[in-house]
Amino acid sequence: MICRFPIYIIMCVLLSVAMTSQAAEWCDTIPVSVADSTAHQSPSAQEVSHRHKMTPIRKTVRGFDRLDTTFIEPQHYIYTVMVQMTHTYDIYTLRGIGNYAQSVTFAPDMNMKIGPYVGWKWFFIGYTFELGNINLQKIKQQFDLSIYSSQIGVDLFYRRTGNDYKLRDAKLGRNVDTTPLEGCSFDGVKAGITGFNAYYIFNHGRFSYPAAFSQSTIQKVSCGSWMAGLGYTKNTLELDHERLQQLIDEQMTTKSVCLDSALMFRKVEYNDFSLSGGYAYNWVFKKNWLFGASVQAALAYKQSVGDVVGSSRGGFDFRNVNLDGIGRFGLVYNNMRWYAGASVIVHMNNYHKPRFRTNNTFGSMNVYLGYNFRLKKKYRKKI
Questions:
Q1: Is residue 9 left, alpha or beta, with left meaning phi > 0 and alpha meaning psi from -120 to 50?
Q2: What is the mean pLDDT of residues 111-122?
């Protein structure tokens, strides 16, 4: 499923560069703090020989991995096992333009999955299953992956919704009571999201994103960093407006309400190219405890093609610039052997045209408990 997307070719290049460094020795970092600098002034003959054998590419990549060990403690273990519970969410709001424009909001029921994971250095593999009854008529395709190294982060996502949306909120005109519509099942919406966000962490020597979101390091002193990134998203939204009108007629028996023509579209597709910037901060409020948060605003250029009912052109072309947002929040306890915590990732995308606009919020929430084992050789000598 993943290989169908051309964008993953770019991701493979990024991952191969990171793996060059990590496969050699994931946390064999080069301290740059003043306190540790003297330990590297007189390297042994073996260390000098090892450095001369390193390829130029490996030297460059390892240089990017420099950490200030006064602020960050690298991972001491090779393997990890973890159990994780994941809740994914997806909310779409469609609205017209104007003071009393109609709007509808769709969202599926809570989707909770749980499963075990096994990790080796940089790689994680696992299996999750959905809690509760499985309805084969509500088939979803979903792939979410977040990769956090010391200086680069990548979010990958691929989602195709099922038919389990519900109408969560509706505004159909002035003084129109839409309470009968709230919570009604509606299978006339289909949505798809495919894309990635990649970002660079400027103060990666002292600020650790992995400490908050992948537990591969420990942040020892509170610190923050500015970030900059780029991203691409392809969004597809289909709406069966005739079925929506039928639902309104069935539920709104006391008053006849007609859908605004702005909501009478069949399909909207748009490509989103974005440049983002923001700030992240890790707050070490107690030993082994960390609260991490980051917020990025994205200037997004959207190129869209769709079709509107009754349009003589058979569709519309749209180019515009909107402001999107990305938020990441994590609470972690990590004593190097055991770790536990929770994290939330939120993506907010906006799409506007003269008569119609949508807002899509999607992301995931994770709760996990893990255990690290088998010390690396460099740390066995200290015990």
A1: alpha
A2: 82
- Under DSSP, the state recorded for 38 is G
At residue 43, the pLDDT reads 47
Lookup: tokens for 240:
């069966």
The most confident of 86-90, 103-107, 135-139, 227-231, by mean pLDDT: 227-231
Q: Which DSSP state fits 254?
A: T
User: 158, exposed or middle or buried, with CB in 10 Å at 0-12, 13-18, 19+?
Assistant: buried
d(CA 247, CA 326): 34
Our measurement of the distance from residue 56's CA atom to the centroid of its chain's CA atoms, rounded to an integer in Å, reads: 33
Closest alpha carbon to 262 in 301, 308, 230, 321: 308
Under 8 Å between Cβ of 58 and 21: yes
CA distance 85 to 129: 10
What is the token pair recorded at 275? Answer: 């440049």
| Beta carbons of 247 and 197 less than 8 angstroms apart | no
Residue 319 burial (C-beta neighbours within 10 Å; 0-12, 13-18, 19+):
exposed
233 burial class (0-12, 13-18, 19+ CB within 10 angstroms)? Answer: buried
> Which residue type occupies 361?
T
- Angle between helix 56-64 and helix 7-25 axes, rounded to 10 deg: 90
What is the rounded CA–CA span in Å between residue 291 and residue 334? 11
The candidate with the shortest Cα–Cα distance to 236, out of 141, 313, 111, is 141
379 or 58: whose pLDDT is higher? 379
Kindly provide the residue ranges of all beta strands, DSSP E only, lying in the chain, ordered along the sequence. Answer: 72-74, 77-96, 103-108, 111-120, 123-126, 129-130, 141-148, 152-160, 165-171, 184-185, 189-201, 217-219, 223-239, 265-286, 289-308, 316-334, 338-353, 356-375
pLDDT tens per residue, range 319-357: 578 899 999 999 999 999 999 999 999 999 888 877 788
- CB burial of 277-294 (b: ≥16 within 10 Å; e: otherwise) equals ebebebbbeeeeebbbbb
Contact 347, 326 (CB under 8 A): yes
Amino acid of residue 267: K
* Residue 24 three-state SS: helix
Residue 308 in this model has a pLDDT that exceeds 80: no
Q: How far apart are CA 225 and CA 191, in angstroms?
A: 35
pLDDT band at 252 (very low <50, low <70, confident <90, very high): confident
